[in-house]
Amino acid sequence: MPFYRVIMRSPNRPVRRFGLVLSILLAGTIPLQQAAVAAPPAKAAAGGTPWLYVGSDVPRDPAWVFGTLPNGVRYAVRHNGVPPEQVSIRVLVDAGSMYETDAQRGYAHLIEHLSFRDSKYLKSGEAIPTWQRLGATFGSDTNAETSATQTVYKLDLPDATAPKLDETFKLLSGMITAPIFTPQGVKTEVPIVLAEMRERIGPRARVMDETRSLFFAGQPLASRSPIGTVDTLNAATSESVKAFHDKWYRPDNTVIVVAGDADPQVLIGKIRQWFGDWKVAGKKPAQPDFGAPVAPPGTDPRNPVGEAKVLVEPDLPRVVNYAILRPWKKVNDTIAYNQGLMIDRLGLALINRRLETRARGNASFLAASVEQQRISRSADATLVTITPLADDWRSAVKDVRAVIADALATPPSEEEIAREVAEFDVAFKVPVETQETLAGSKVADDLTDAVDIRETVANPDTVYGIFRKSIPLFTPQAVFQHTQALFKGTVIRPVLITPKAGDGTEEDLRAALTAPVDAASGSRVAANTLKFADLPPVGQPGTLKTAEAAGLLGIERIELSNGVKALLWANNAEPGRIIVRVRFGGGYAVIDPRDAVYGPLAETALMDAGIGSLSRDDLDRLATGRKLSLDFDIDDTVFRMAADTRPADLEDQLYLFAAKLAQPRWDANPVLRARAAAQLGYESSNTSPMSVLQRDLPWLLKDGDPRYATPNPAELQKATPEGFRRVWEPLLRQGPVEVDLFGDFDREKAIAALEKTFGALPARDALPETGFAPHIPAHNAEPLVLTHHGDATTAAALVAWPTGGGRKGPALRESRQLDLLAQIFNIRLFDEMREKIGASYAPQVGSTWPLDLPSGGYIAATVQLRPQDLPAFFAAADKIAADLAANPPTADEIARVTEPMKQLITRASTGNGFYMYQLEGGAQEPGKFQEIRSILSDSSTTTPEAMQALAQRYLRADRNWKVEVVPQPK
After folding, report:
1. How many domains does the chain contain in total?
2. Which of 92, 184, 687, 762 could make an S-S bridge to 255, C-beta 3.0–4.6 Å?
3. Average pLDDT, stretch 434-442?
4. Which InterPro entries match (predicted)?
5. Is residue 751 domain-shared with residue 813, that is, in the same domain?
6. 845 in helix, strand or coil?
7. Taking phi first (over 0 means left), then psi (-120 to 50 degrees means alpha), and beta for anything else, what does residue 624 get?
8. Which residue, of 259, 275, 291, is where some domain finishes?
């Protein structure tokens, strides 16, 4: 029962990661389309105990039905009706990159690709089109991933009728049990995998590989990236790949997990029908030896700092990572074991809170964190990540070690523990309150994770009950002892990533970790003495002025006496959850271009600056044991505050947002910290062609409007806390305010809370007239050329065609139809660039149409590839655009985009989030309630002639704009 996943995702404790995060560095999962997780088998059931629970006393989750087929295939199935009519299937094979020989490196991942290419029931290249015709979107609904320990095939099947279910299990069984490996298939797929490899190379990938090789020196994981190597992939043959498949793809090495809106017995019947006859010869091979961390001879066991590395990467910020490593051991997932995990997490949470508090002040580090992971069945590790504030990494290491030393020298106080226990309580209680809203895909993934880490699953009530009964165990002495154990290990291995040669040696790094430090007793965080009841009111409460039905789903439009408007939709579709959105002001449109630098800084610093007399640390204390958020972002024409809260916390959540507008605080430190983070991060955006595009396209596609630019170091250096206040103080007072509440709340209580908070706001200043109407640059015959500092074999490119904006007249339907045209374009570009020439792994085409602006929309095709393939991309994009204008798309192409879109909208519309996204702002613009009625027909029905007409109107060669990102010349 993996408690740690719940605890580490506590909604009250978001952790901003300014440096290279160890958990990312060590994950090493290679997906077919996007990253995710992994899973393997467990022991067979004994004495009637479900196979997942053998050796455990954790109460089983009764929603799951477990079993084992005669041939050894294990399964877990359950009914889950979220969203309705969807079934999520996971097929897990215990065969990852650490199961390969040296000559087979990359084969586990290559087989994942080849299984989608050609199999018993699917002709070559038919897998993706087939799933699309069934309504599944490739890359999200249909996916696969390979990790060091296993390969997982994933499918979320919408509209899972009996015929669709039967066809799905049939096709999956052919992919898993009988893929077809041909010389042509291998020859076609290897270049695609190499294109995927190119998308991952660069400074960050080098750091990942070097860190992995250091931390796991002497173990297979040190050199077993799932992507493989160029040499082994190019040497792959259909026979050698089949040999790996035949060895590891076996019934007794496979688990099938299914959760969805279907009778579990029907699902079990499909598993038996399509996987029950799977037979292989021979006994199951022994699992490879994954080894264990070993200290070098002569290492001091009291401070076992071993091998170290200094990695010079000019485009990456300074980061010090070190791992305290212990052997990985198989554990029995018992209640006592999980209670120990909770005490471990308490100790780490205390340290992380102390580190974050220091970082918000005048610390030598921008950010630091500690965490514990059991990694790929290879090591049990305590991981420390430190991002220095400036060049002096030694002081940053010393200061972080001093905080850790204090935790290792003196037990925490009862008050500190009580605060963290309150945080854990809400983290465990929220899943209890919202368990009816858990999607089938989520519970399927959770069980998949549990199989991989050799643990069990438990329902939220069980988890919360065990936690509550364990609270007496959380004593200062117990937390102290567990913390001490977490910072002991067989060996400690550090790595310094630095942009400057000569910044330190491996011996300097070892010395920084072995030098004595004084315990930083001053790092301990004060106990919580703040209460919302003690805070000053926002102002004189207002009253309800008007309330009227919006004419859709029982949603109300209300207005308070001070002019604040709101949308209220009280419903029990998602018990225990309330979505809150606050819209105010004028967004990017009202920021003076000369003050553009303060826009991005605000997305980090504005909420961290606090409220009234309360700092962000004070707000964190107020939020202890509560589900409260302070999220902020900037849109084209509006500023937005957002939260996901629960009924018990709604009034206080509204107070925080209203007080931010009425009583803003202007601490300097959050601005200085945000500025330092932005300066450190800017150069790292040069490390790959795609990161350059991601950094510069928002600005370039607005024809160089500086408000959308990522500020460079020179611009950031000019930014000051005083300037930040000068810009944002008037912006917080401007424009109408709308509050939208969708979810599980009492209407009368919500209105009373609104009257006390947003109803108490003073009169708002008028928004200035801006005439804001962005547009993409004019046509260029030759692409704009940007450069990156990454690998010389990688480049990226984009071609964009201007469209439009707004929602008046036919514009709204046209915006939705353009999404379909973009998806048809994507199918063709995918086939041209990936399938035919293997030049790109995942080309993407999408449509952007700003509904709140009169212009600025575009269709854009983006790709990462080799520099020599850039002409092929631009030629392919021009050819596809011209052909779509000259000839209507086929009926099959239409079906491949409309059915997935229909299913996507149908599934999304079962949750409050869909309606919030579509109707947000509807209190000010009631026309949105009419607009949503046509979204399904506009977005999932079209004709070949309509697509051709849009292509003729917009995909014109004399209007497109192009950019390419190439390696910077040496």
Report:
1. 4
2. 92
3. 94
4. Metalloenz_LuxS/M16, Pept_M16_N, Peptidase_M16, Peptidase_M16_C
5. no
6. strand
7. beta
8. 275
Could you tell me which residues come within 8 angstroms of residue 730 by beta carbon, excluding any fewer than 6 positions away? 765
Asked if pLDDT for residue 13 goes beyond 50, the answer is no
The mean per-residue pLDDT over the stretch 138-143 comes to: 82
Task: Give the residue carrying structure tokens 């643990």.
Answer: 455
From 275, 298, 322, the end of a domain falls on 275
Q: Is residue 12 part of a domain?
A: no
Residues 651 and 789 in one domain: no
Of 862, 852, 854, nearest to 927 (Cα)? Answer: 852
The CA-based angle 665-666-672, given to 5 degrees, is 140
φ/ψ of residue 764, rounded to 5: -95, 145
Task: Please give the Cα distance from 595 to 706 (Å, whole number).
Answer: 9
177 domain-assigned: yes
Residue 245 lies in domain: 72-275
Taking the CB of residue 201, how many other CB atoms lie within 10 A of it?
17
Residue 435 lies in a domain: yes
> How buried is 887 (Cβ within 10 angstroms: 0-12 exposed, 13-18 middle, 19+ buried)?
exposed
878 and 942 both lie in a single domain? yes
Same structural domain for residues 420 and 553?
no
If one counts every other C-beta atom within 10 angstroms of the C-beta of residue 614, the result is: 18
Res 303: pLDDT: 87
Do residue 498 and residue 370 come from a single domain? yes
According to the model, what pLDDT value does residue 300 have? 87
Query: Residue 892: how many CB atoms within 10 A of its CB?
Result: 11
Residue corresponding to tokens 């500023």: 639
Q: Rounded to an integer, what distance in angstroms lies between the CA atom of residue 927 and that of residue 919?
A: 9
Dihedral sign from CA coordinates of 881, 887, 890, 894? positive
Question: Is 491 in the same domain as 544?
Answer: no
Residue 351's CATH number: 3.30.830.10
Residue 549: inside a domain, yes or no? Answer: yes
B/e letters for 736-763, b = 16+ CB within 10 Å, e = fewer, are bbbbbbbbbbeeeebbebbbbbbbbbee
CB of 954 closer than 8 Å to CB of 860:
no
pTM over 0.90: yes
Q: Which amino acid is at 500?
A: K
Sign of CA dihedral 475, 478, 484, 486: negative
CB neighbour class for 681 (10 Å; exposed up to 12, middle 13-18, buried from 19): middle
Please give the Cα distance from 701 to 707 (Å, whole number).
Answer: 12
Identify whether residues 168 and 262 lie together within a single domain: yes
d(CA 206, CA 194): 16
